[in-house]
Write the structure tokens for this entry.
Amino acid sequence: MKAEKLTRRDWLKLGAAGAAGLSGATILDLASRGGARNALAAHGLTSGAIKHGAVLGHQQDMGVVGTTATQDDFDPGTFLTHFDYGEVQIRSDGRTVRHWDVVAVDRDIQIAPGVWFPAWTYNGQVPGPTFRCTEGDILRVEFTNAGSHPHTIHFHGTHPTEMDGVEPIVQPGEKFTYEFEAKPFGLHLYHCHTMPLKRHIHKGLYGTFIVDPPEGREPAREMVMVMNAFDSNLDTENEVYAVNTAAFYHNEHPIRVGVNDLCRVYLVNVTEFDPVNSFHLHAGMFRVYKTGTQMDRYELTDTIMMCQGERHILEFNLENPGSHMFHAHQSEFAELGWLGAFEAVENLAADEGAPMHSYV
Amino acid sequence: MKVHPCTLMSDHNTEKDTVQQTMAQSPISGHPQAKRTSRTNRWILGLFPVALLAGISVLFLRNDPTAQFRAAFPPVEELTIERVSFPEAGIMRVHVVNGGPESVTIAQVLVDDAYWQFKIDRDPTVPRLNSATLELNYPWVEGEPHLISLITSTGLTFEYEVAVATESPRLNAQYLTIFGLLGLYAGVVPVLLGLLWYPFLRRIDRKWVHFYLSLTLGLLAFLLFDTFEHTLETSAMVAEGFEAVGLIALGILGAVVGLRAIGQLGRDKSAPTSGLTIAYMIAIGIGLHNLGEGLAIGAAYALGEIALGSFLVIGFALHNTTEGLAIVAPIADKRPALWNFIAMGMIAGLPTILGAWAGGFSYSPITATFFLALGAGAILQVIIEVSKLVQRSWPKGLFTPLNAMGLIIGMVIMYVTALMVTA
């Protein structure tokens, strides 16, 4: 009965999506995914058996019970190493044009095992897709608002003011196409800029926007980590902290990397309500390329503090095999879900673990 | 007491039969044939509205016309953590009830703002008015506060603050002895001591007997307010779905009506309630009050809220000695057998021990609220009876200056001795 109720509610929202001219296939797809999700929510955890995290092992009980359902359409493990280059066309003048369709939809997402959050999303996922391009590309983002509230997409970086995503506000059922040249190279982000801003951001409307330098970067095992948090009871304090939404996900599923392989983390902070977040690596040091806009200036450290909207590229080589924990160095955030680990393995094949990314 | 359980039963039956006969004989206005209606028909007539209601309920549940409204609202969730116990170092147990209108799924637990793994003694989806116990291996710190927060599947949180963590008492001989002695010193002994005022009361002037009866009224009035305040305080911890207000009303009115009915048993209705019956009623009322008091002491100790000092015990003893006086005042002009005094002392005092034992292990705000309300109602009924006693045995009436003074002094005595137990 619960599922039926929610499906009916989903259909109301999808009515708006229909008005926006979305194809029938998309509507059915979203509706069926909603149904599956609600079935999961209804069953929740079937047992309260204690499941030990891979990293904290059997000595400590800190952590969540159960595991985030990976059969859900958003898998934090896949998201970590997935980059969306869009539909590519080469214009007559030889320039690369990239096209993305982005649809804002309301949906419940799983933020910790068995805990569901009524999110506002880009393309049904939080964080939104990781857009990736090269400096100088022409970007075209066709935005459809199929959600229940007005939204926009505000990109960080340099672009004409009318493409800034503050105005016009895209009402439910409406569309807007953002078009601009990708510059400068570096690590950027995008998010909704509709007021009230706090709510539009913490509800899930944000994502990573990577502009590669024309000459590329050194091949590395690349990962995207969006430091985010969720105020599940809406009291302006977060109950869950994570990278890429799911609390303790990489504690349960450590990220496999090769010993001495170059690793590159695109680290973005969108944490709402708290002034800062941080990243700390165990048993190793990383190079920080602030905002990723310079290739040769960096700082060597193992802890970096970031304000909301700040983003840095981290590069490191883990010299020793075994578990390298990483987490916020605010212990509170770490114990509320923002904690994971790299598992450094000898002779890991380039396509295994976090795969090696090469610039051609 | 004079009434045996079996007499009570048979009395009850006779009364019911009488009622039924009266109903059958009295013609319902406009229906003189009612007399001739067969027993079966009467049953059908009585059950018809019930059957109709059941039918409508089934139809309603099948088609649910309110679903249209509800679909627009998220489910309302209401979890109440009744208590958190610490059976041993490194282990914490959280006792939860669902007092809300719908089932709630406990998804995660936070202790001091950290996710902590837990075991649950049932399916984590807890239906309405059901309870669950969660167990965590958490290194709690003796003497320090801890904050427990349950996160449901919809992301709502329900919190409970442990003021001071301390190892929960275990059901063993030592605990039973400590609380047995506490109940003895604080409940039984003082009440029996109070009863020793009986010979004194017998030797004083009638005017002064009434002064002491008024003093008793003052003591009881204070106890009434005290118990009622405890009831309200405890009821604040009762989960919403359990209807604390209904529980209080049921307890208070149930005790008033119940004690009245007991007082009426085995005697002529026209005769006034005898002094001895009133004395027993006072003993029952005070016993119920002391049960609540015992529950509170046991629970407060188990929850680490009070330390058991000798000052506390002495305070309770002084406070309760006055209760003995209250019991014997109505029988100042009687000469009851000695065993009556012992029986009344036990009725009034022993519940302190029972309450303390129960409160330490299975404290539940629901039962505590009900028993406290029952105590308040019993005291109220006793006040009514004692007032009637004074009024009819003293031609000058209830509120002579001396009696009024007695009443006020009674309350002042209670107030002063109560100050000693709030330590």
Summary: The longest helix of chain B spans residues 206-235. Residues 1-30 of chain B have pLDDT under 50 and may be disordered. Chain B touches chain A through 33 residues (CB under 8 Å). Residues 181 and 410 of chain B are 28 Å apart (CA to CA).
